[in-house]
Amino acid sequence: MAIEIEPVKKRTSLKENIALIFSVVVLLICFGLYFYFSQVVLAQKQSEASKLSAELASLGQEDVKAKEDELALAGKYISDFKILLENNPKPLAFFTAFQKWAHPKIVYSGFSIDIPARKITMAGRTSGFQNVMQQIAVLDKETTIESYQISNIGLSEGGGVMFSLDVFLKPEILK
Length: 175
Prior knowledge:
Elements: H1 14-87, H2 92-101, E1 107-114, E2 119-126, H3 129-141, E3 145-155, E4 161-169
């Protein structure tokens, strides 16, 4: 008699079948999600990113262009002011000379400078006529003054003396 040896068929349990089917379903869902996110969502996000990048680049260019225009305008103003400053006489030399010959007890105000005529008009106020006489003596000795004229001499309400002084300067003072 011959004995047949037949392999024993292993019976799979229902739990193993369910676990296998569940694993396959989860694997398919994972592949589906990966495909969806890599093809659809990622493509949308890349297009949004490229649009935002282009918009940001254009905003930056507009901003840079606006700043360039602003700087060009400022450069024009600076060059215009430079021309004015270089071509106009400087009254600062007058004030330096004025400090040398102005009497310390006389208060000058209301300066009017006529550079082409080299004429300076100012109003003076002091406590008495003696200070005015001393100022005239100083003006006579001053070498930077071509001529001067004192007018409107009178007493003020407070007891002081008020006058107007027109001074004609030599040309080198206002150069």
